[in-house]
Amino acid sequence: MKKAFLLLALAFMATVSYSQEEQDSLQKVDGFYWQYDDAARTATVVSSTRWHKHGDEDAYGNCHCYHGDIVIPEKAPNGYTVTGVGDQAFNCCDGLTSVKLPATLKTIGELAFQLCTKLKEISIPASMERMDYDAFGASSLERFIIEDSDAPIVIGSAAVYGSFFLGLPVRYAYVGRNFIVNNPSAEETGGPKGLFYSCEELEEVVFGSNVTLLHEGDCSYCRKLKKVTIGAGVTTIPDYCFDTCPLLETADIPYGLVSIGKYAFSDSPKVNFLSQHYKKLKSIGQGAFMNTEATSVTIPASVEWVGDCAFGFDSKLKEIRSYAAVPPTCETWAGPVSDEMYKTCRLYVPKGSEAAYKAAEGWKQFFSTSETGEGKCATPTVSIEKGELVFACDTKDVEFHYSFTYPQNQEGTGDRVELPQTVKLSVYASCKGKEDSDVAVYELSLASGGIYGDVNNDGIVDVADISRIILIMAGF
Questions:
Q1: Are 248 and 224 in contact (CB under 8 A)?
Q2: Which helix (H) or strand (E) holds 358?
Q3: Quick check: 451 and 384 in contact, CB under 8 A?
Q4: What CA–CA distance (Å, rounded) separates 82 from 97?
Q5: Is the pLDDT of residue 129 over 80?
Q6: Sign of the four-CA dihedral 308, 311, 317, 319
Q7: Of 385 and 355, which is predicted with more confidence?
Q8: What DSSP letter does each residue of 34-74 carry, written as one string?
Q9: Residue whose C-alpha is closest to residue 422's, from 444, 403, 440
Q10: Quick check: 197 pLDDT over 80?
């Protein structure tokens, strides 16, 4: 632990050191220090610090040379394309309040924005290829956007036990592309290497439609995380991905999910998103939902394998509803719940499969098993009445499950917001003893053919009605 602290301290104290030749190549033009690559005709914004001498505290930092709101141009004063922000380029610029990065930028160097204590948000352009170790370390970032792109981005992680966002007060993050976390220390020590691992202030994260791959522990130990949205490209929730997120309650997970890794949502007791509509889900890993607070969980018909104590230990489960006609394979020595729960948790299985479950390892231990098969819930309908969205269903005593989607990455800054012209609503109904209804999809739109109306009761159907719909979505 002392060694880890020493490494971290040395990293915070380090500054850029230039040779005399390199110093001579630095130029301050139009408010920035530049370093040019004549062969590639590219430019990099660099630190103003020209030398470094160990033990001389006056040499540390970046002389606070950048401050206020700055815009890094796409072209340097000599016409070269700006492709980089160098190591420690803005280090210790505690007067820096905002930075707009150019669409040509490819790299951000180590500690580039370290200790920028007034920098609250950043948007990483689609052109970015690599962000190095601790690029925003000890800054005050609260919002972090990685713009949409088809190409992956390499992200350098913090030293030893940490992630790129370790210690940052980021509350909202949007990730619009695949990412590769580069943490050699974690590879050597076996430490965590998830992108948001232990990002203690994170409340919401969105993985956009271009993201197809998450990683082990990406959001584990995010103790304030309340909402996660995952794009349709993701088919696997890796091991420990959302482990120990005690406030996580809203998980918008795509229906194309194929597998859930071990302990993926362990000790995240409020999460309970599984339904029959996950028709491609094949496996639920060991301890995946361990210590859940849910009283009822669903195992979709497509599931073939359930890990040991997937829903077990300190949970409040009263029933498990499996829609798999063939009992999913369990560990030969255990089943989906802990031993003491077999007597208190009731198992419901498809009509005609009770005998198979009572003979199957991991399922036969349930004290109470019974069949369902009373048909399917009717598909719900949606209307707008007196400024509210109203769900209805021909089946009695149903519970409605709904989600809204609208153009992604609508986060931003400024005093004006362009409201979406359409909002898509998905809703289905469920009740005990019946299969879930089909998912009904409606488009709340100002355009002809969509469901729209005078939601705010002002006598006009206009964009203000969409605004009211968004407030409804937010629970206001």
A1: no
A2: helix 354-359
A3: yes
A4: 21
A5: yes
A6: negative
A7: 355
A8: EEEETTTTEEEE--S-----TT-GGGSS-TT--EEEEE--S
A9: 444
A10: yes
**Where do we find the tokens 């407030």?**
471
Q: Which two tokens mark 5?
A: 């602290």
Mention every residue, 6+ apart, whose C-beta is less than 8 A from residue 184.
none
Burial level of 53, CB count in 10 A (0-12/13-18/19+)? exposed
Residue appearing with tokens 């190591």:
87
Handedness of CA 48, 54, 59, 64 (dihedral sign): positive
The CA distances from residue 93 to 17, 136, 449, in Å, are 18, 12, 53
SS3 184: helix
β 32-37/42-45 pair status: antiparallel
Pairing mode, strands 179-182 and 107-108: unpaired
CA distances from 66 to 86, 102, 208 (A): 14, 17, 33
| C-beta neighbour count of 169 within 10 angstroms | 14
Q: Phi first, then psi: what are they for 382, rounded to 5°? A: -130, 140
Q: How far apart are CA 312 and CA 450, in angstroms?
A: 44
Which residues, other chains included, contact 204 with Cβ-Cβ below 8 Å and sequence gap of 6+? 171, 172, 173, 225, 226, 227, 228, 229
Q: What is this structure's pTM?
A: 0.78
Count Cβ atoms below 10 Å from residue 416 Cβ, excluding itself: 5
Long-range contacts (CB closer than 8 Å, 24 or more residues apart) made by 273-279: 274/298, 274/299, 274/300, 275/300, 275/401, 275/428, 275/430, 275/436, 276/300, 276/301, 276/323, 276/435, 276/436, 277/428, 277/436, 277/439, 278/302, 279/255
Q: Could you give the CA distance from residue 333 to residue 339 in angstroms, rounded to a whole number?
A: 11
Q: Mean pLDDT over residues 89-96, rounded?
A: 91
Tell me what pLDDT residue 470 has: 52
